[in-house]
Amino acid sequence: MFTSIPNPQQAQDYLNEAEARNPGPWVAHSLQVAEAAQRIAAAHPELDPEVAHTLGLLHDIGRRAGIAGMRHVVDGYYFLIAEGFPTAARICLTHSYPIPNVRAGSSVWDGSTTEKQFVAEYLAQIEYTPYDRLIQLCDALCLPRGPVLMEKRMVDVTLRHGSNEFTTRKWQAFFDIQKEFETIIGQSLYSLLPGVVENTFGFTP
């Protein structure tokens, strides 16, 4: 597992290069996902915080290729496969699909038909790992300014990209993942993520 992801400096270098190619709020979002993943992993008996941070940094690395909808998942996958990091590449594909169905993406599919078929077959053939679930969860918890109440992030995504037949099922999947992690770590995820109240409601308690 740990040899199939970049080391922390490599991951940061990839993100820096990607930001130079395609700057945008996705970079700050990636940094927030990485920090949230690290904090949650530190409280989880089976997860490595450094690995979690690296996977969080790189989950949206496909956006290095330019502004895109769901195509960014395959762009990231192919980039990291070419770099020799299949576990990190896998996260690029799985982070957007708490429901393993290519039609459940939050935005339009703008890749090729062949790429769409590849993602569909890939998702159908794997079982999600705790790292897959962790990055799906943190992606659903983090805005570029920091972690928020998950419902706020869900509404933000839906307002920007619209809803589809999978939207409410995806929301339920995120809540199920949250419950699973909270059962394992024995506390609310929000207790591990500083700034949730401020980022969600705009005031300091």
Q: What can you see in these coordinates?
A:
This protein has one domain (2-196): Hypothetical protein af1432 (Orthogonal Bundle). The chain contains 10 helices and 2 strands, in the order H-H-H-H-H-H-H-E-E-H-H-H. The protein has helices at residues 8-21, 25-42, 49-58, 71-82, 86-94, 113-125, 130-139, 150-161, 167-185, 196-201; strands at residues 142-143, 146-147. By secondary structure, the chain is mainly alpha-helical. Helix content is 60%, strand content 2%. Strand 1 and strand 2 (146-147) form a beta hairpin. The model has no long low-confidence stretch (mean pLDDT 96). It has a two-stranded antiparallel sheet with strand order 1-2. The protein starts with 7 loop residues before the first helix and ends with a helix.
Give a brief rundown of this model:
This protein is mainly alpha-helical and 205 residues long. It contains 10 helices and 2 strands; from the N terminus they run αααααααββααα.
